[in-house]
Amino acid sequence: MKIVLFGTLLLTLVGCTTLNSGLEKWSSLNNSKREYEVKAAWIRRTTEKDNLGFRKINRMTPVLAGDLVIQGNGLDGIVAYSRDNGQERWRLPIENGAEPSATLIRDRLFVGASDGNFYSIEASTGTVQWTFNTKSENLAAPLLEDGIVYFLAGNSVFYALDAATGRQIWLHSRQDTSQFSIRGGSQAALNNGILYVGFSDGSVVALNAKTGSSLWEVQLNRNKRFRDIDATPVVEGNQLYVAGYDDKLYCLSVDKGEVLWRIEGGGYSGVTVVGDKLIYPTTNGEVQALNKASGDKLWSYKLKDGIATQVRTYKGVLVFGESQGSLRFLDANAGTEVGSFEPGRGILSSPQVDEKAGRVYFISGEANLYAIDAGWIRTPYF
Questions:
Q1: Residues linked to residue 65 through DSSP beta bridges, in sequence order
Q2: How confident is the model over 236-289, as pLDDT tens digits?
């Protein structure tokens, strides 16, 4: 009899404990709110010395290579850090630094620099494998495909090099007669053996990737001031999306370059395709969501400071930098801000995301590399 009563009492106590635990969890969730937390995991100065002179431009998107994050600055070189704690692993001095973004394939990093050279670098050690002299600043990110690296030099010469040796395969040169130009350059887009490249004279050219022969070209931006097409063209199906700096966003046919539609508002960075939407950072200080098929505007977010970098997707939100402001996180469906981080002196580098680690990397205008932890958390109301 005592055993039965004890068992009954034990079951009652266990049941009450489980119920209370469930009620506590429910109460905790009911009395909490969902917030987007953005905080710095670590910060590192990428320059070897303090920059006390002219402020340089830092535009390279951080490169994730194994357990490394590799970052170039616009002053004195390229540095590799441990992704988890920011410990410096190697440093490659380059006069006037490396401004454009780089391309990684296996253990090779390809990047153009401001010293007039294009580099192939062993990513794990920072050892230079070869260099190619362009006799010009290099301001555009390279593209690597089938053992060939393609890039646009600052003198409007587009190169195709053997990625293993640096040997020139072909080049395409254009004469730019415009008096003013925006600092930057277009990364090529490749689709079905055809390269699509924007130039500072306002034209887009389709080139045979093997031979460099021109298939078609179209003059888009005819503005007298800044005709540059520095935004990377984006191919989606049979459509090509490309923006002129102070002109318009164009949707072209990939086969002939015919204009299918256009919208007002120029762009410095390429569009980002998210489902049936285009996310478009404009040079008039907006980030727009457009219907991919028609260009119709779905929503618009007005920046607080400057213009936006190219937008990245990160765990269901959009992330980008402001040229004179903060790192911003937006709801992808509504375009409303969910979080931000202020590094000081703005951001010209499109951020790099590591969704698995829940981390975002970017370089600030002060040439500081940031590792940011970002995500949704629950906090109590009281």
A1: 68
A2: 999 999 998 888 999 999 999 999 999 998 888 999 999 999 999 999 999 999
Q: 9-18, 89-98, 190-199, 223-232: lowest mean pLDDT where?
A: 9-18
Distance separating alpha carbons of residues 199 and 173, to the nearest angstrom:
10
Tokens 């937006």 label which residue? 330
Burial of 247 (0-12, 13-18, 19+ CB in 10 A): buried
∠ Cα 306 266 313 (to 5°):
65
**pTM (2 decimals)?**
0.89
Task: Indicate the domain borders of the chain.
Answer: 33-49+304-382
Dihedral, 176, 178, 184, 189 alpha carbons, nearest 10:
-50
E-strand spans in 177-271? 189-191, 194-198, 203-208, 214-219, 234-236, 239-243, 248-253, 259-264
Residue 9: which residues within 8 A CB-CB, separation 6 or more?
Answer: none
Of 53, 67, 66, nearest in space to 97 by CA:
53
Q: What angle do CA 218, 220, 226 make, to 5 degrees?
A: 135
Spatial CA neighbour of 72 closest among 376, 362, 375: 362
Please tell me the predicted confidence (pLDDT) of residue 56. 77
Q: Show the CA angle centred on residue 316, arms to residues 376 and 354, nearest 5°.
A: 80
How far apart are the two ends of the chain, measured CA to CA in Å? 48
- Confidence category of residue 9, pLDDT binned at 50, 70, 90: very low
